């Protein structure tokens, strides 16, 4: 199971998973996912907490200062609403493609990411936590 599949039932969390995964290996992100969402279960809980706490929780994923800012901006924008996920801060092609696949169930899209390509082709070996 990949992280997006694990989080697919909660689109907000799935997209945060994508922010954490961007330019990072899944082995760095798996240990962060459950503790992060236990501490920050909703968009509102993220915006109510300070940058430093979020930064410290996600340090293991690398780029933690940039990711912390992205997560906070993303959570605030999520609360304001959106027409397309690509409008949200921190959401690029990888996250948009993941949203299409895992939230919208659209597997007929052109992806460029190796893991998403392998997932769609059925070639992906499970990524363990």
Question: Can you give a write-up of this model?
Answer:
The chain has 129 residues and is mainly α. The protein has one domain (3-121): Hypothetical protein, domain 2 (Endonuclease III, domain 1, Orthogonal Bundle). Helix content is 60%, strand content 0%. Helix 2 crosses helix 3. It starts with a helix and ends in an 8-residue tail after the last helix.
Topology:
Elements: H1 3-7, H2 11-21, H3 26-39, H4 43-47, H5 51-58, H6 64-80, H7 93-102, H8 114-121
Helix pairs in contact: 2-3, 2-6, 2-7, 5-6
Q: What labels describe this entry?
A:
mainly alpha; 129 residues; Endonuclease III, domain 1; 0% strand; single chain; 60% helix
Distance between the termini: 9 Å
Relative helix content: 55-70%
| Highest CATH level, the class | Mainly Alpha
Order of helices and strands: HHHHHHHH
Radius of gyration: 14 Å
Tell how many strands the DSSP assignment holds: 0
| Largest β-sheet summary | none
CATH level-four homologous superfamily name? Hypothetical protein, domain 2
Query: Number of helical runs?
Result: 8
Structural category is mainly alpha
Q: Supply the CATH architecture.
A: Orthogonal Bundle
Q: Tell me the strand percentage band.
A: under 5%
What name is given to the CATH topology? Answer: Endonuclease III, domain 1
So what's the overall shape?
Answer: globular
**pLDDT < 50 stretches:** none
Mean pLDDT: 92
Structural domain tally: 1
Question: Would you kindly provide a brief summary of this structure?
Answer:
The chain is 60% helix and 0% strand. The chain has eight helices and no strands.
